[in-house]
Amino acid sequence: MPAFFMPLRPAPRPTDLGSQIADIASASAATRATELDEKIWFDDDFRFVLAAALPGLRFLTKLPTGVTIFTHLDGSWARLDNGRVAQAGQQQIWDAVEAAYEQWEDLSRPTRGHFTISVEPDSQHIRLEGRGVEWALPRMP
Q1: N or C terminus: which one in the chain shows less Cβ crowding within 10 Å?
Q2: Domains in the chain, start-ordered, CATH in brackets?
């Protein structure tokens, strides 16, 4: 059955959102160029792939200055500013976003309806049938 029906679970809201935004906005971190910007978050088909490839990613905010902040449940973050990205934490989440985007592009931008979900007693997987692409979904309590 197509996975299109499946709602995306939102990541929990941080307890002290204002402090988290201020800390990330002012954090010192190396930057590099990126061709992607926050607009990719609003492409529903890519966001579905991104939710499978990087569960726990959250679009935190876009500041009046144009700086955009993404966070992950593990505390990792990415800060986008005018074609540059800074990242810190356990994982480089923007690197993972770019890798997922490249994979989605290489697969000819499949829509949600092209994916299936399999549910077994011990696991759940999202698959793009016939393409050898599969993501294991995290176990939820």
Answers
A1: C
A2: 19-113 (3.30.160)
